[in-house]
Amino acid sequence: MTFDASGLTHFDTPELQANYERARRRYPAQAIVDLATLRDNMRHLVEIVNADESQPHTEVMGVVKADAYGHGLVPTALAALAGGATWLGTAQSHEALVLREAGIGLDRARILTWVNDPYEVPYDELLRQHIDISVGTIDAIHELAKAAETVQRSAHGEEPIVAHVHVKVETGFGRNGFTLDQLDAVAPLLKELQDKGLFEITGQWSHLAVADMPDTPEFVDETEQQIQRFEEFTEHMKAAGIEPKMRHLANTAATLSRPNIHFDLVRPGVGLYGYEPDPAMGTPEQYGLKPAMTLQAQLSSVKTVPAGTGLSYGRVYVTEKETSAVIVPVGYADGIHRSASGFNEAGARKEQHLGGPVVFMTKQGPLVRHVSGRICMDQFIIDLHGSAEELGIHVGDTVQLFGPGRGQEFCEPTADDWAQAADTISYEIYTCLRNRVPRLYRNAASVLSEQDLAMLDPTSLI
Ligand SMILES: *Cc1c(COP(=O)(O)O)cnc(C)c1O
């Protein structure tokens, strides 16, 4: 009998339990994603958007770039659709194609893709798969127009495919998109391509730089300026005879906090996964969101070491008393940030840095301890500050690195806690989690239709 901090005791069918056991034999760590939580987070975001009666037709895009922030592209996309999203968005065009190839047709979702090298991106495939395309450079306009012509020429009497174009405008992020001068220069060309039936200018869009810091007045001002510039672009487009139906600007932060800029479409990413964009905004719970991913691992070693033992490379953590040291068999090669290593004053750096948190189940209940010493490639060590024997901690116990945060009582860390230890943001914690850690899905049968279920790897369901 091993202690289990995962709380996973119930499986709906023996097959699901067998999948779980197989995954544990394959790898000593698992990332468990609750599809019901993803669906509920999306539902909540849709409700927030619908509550704003001044903009009754706002749609919601589930941003599923980067393998759905590490949660798994197709399962997450399907859960987002189950929660009421009508759009999906990916940065890389490859991921947009994967969604269509998996079976998510135009009848289920519009898909927008935005990062691309216009000379290499397979515009023809994107057009045939009815994927909306962002353009933010003159090169992209020319290349996309060429592809649209080719695709239309080979249509052979079928309904001609028109490129659904979202014009990206630079409102103050300093990244993608046309400046106002550039837009004025290309607007006649866009209009011409639209008149020719090659383009439909579907969208005007931009991205906010500092929407996640509502308490910093100069950032609030900067967001106001971005909004103003966004409106200016609309005026300029209008003057050139272009009136995009879908204007969109809001990420999660603005979806949660700025209903006045929901416009026709909002693009939440991190909120779908259950996190607020920045802990400065508060906790996920305050926003009605719940983290969907749990990362757990099985202990590979438990032993007693004397006082003065250096743990891991560089002796940056040295035990102060006799204690139990345990090994968690995941490391930076799994995407566990090395910057979440733990130092103590007895160690070579003579300074304290609290490492990433891990929760253990003990005879006395859940207990949080922190990474002690440097995180290695495939493992890290934790000083239990006590006796494993007395705590009831053994090799093979399941420990949890982060999860949905089941309250103070369970003292369960979230990716925000790991982000704090690693001096980064929660986004980087889950997107960096490597795919050698199996992704397992809870509640698939209750969230997805039979048809959608068939799109998933059946062995990934638990
Ligand atoms: C990633 C991304 C989003 C989602 O941002 P969140 O902060 O995760 O909500 C929205 N729009 C664009 C263009 C993005 O790249």
Automatic annotation (TrEMBL):
InterPro entries named in the record: Ala_racemase, Ala_racemase/Decarboxylase_C, Ala_racemase_C, Ala_racemase_N, Ala_racemase_pyridoxalP-BS, PLP-binding_barrel
Cross-referenced SUPFAM superfamilies: Alanine racemase C-terminal domain-like, PLP-binding barrel
SMART domains: Ala_racemase_C (SM01005)
Organism from which the protein derives: Bifidobacterium dolichotidis
Keyword tags: Isomerase, Pyridoxal phosphate
GO CC terms: cytosol
Binding-site list for substrate: 175, 377
HAMAP family, per the entry: Ala_racemase
Cofactors that this protein relies on: pyridoxal 5'-phosphate
One annotated GO molecular function: alanine racemase activity
Statement: the UniProt record of this protein carries the keyword Lyase: no
Pathway stated in the Swiss-Prot or TrEMBL entry: Amino-acid biosynthesis; D-alanine biosynthesis; D-alanine from L-alanine: step 1/1
Function comment: Catalyzes the interconversion of L-alanine and D-alanine. May also act on other amino acids.
Name recorded for this polypeptide: Alanine racemase
Class of this enzyme: isomerase
PROSITE patterns: ALANINE_RACEMASE (PS00395)
Family label: Belongs to the alanine racemase family.
Pfam families, sorted: Ala_racemase_C, Ala_racemase_N
Matching NCBIfam families: alr
Single Gene Ontology BP annotation: D-alanine biosynthetic process
Domain of life (superkingdom): Bacteria
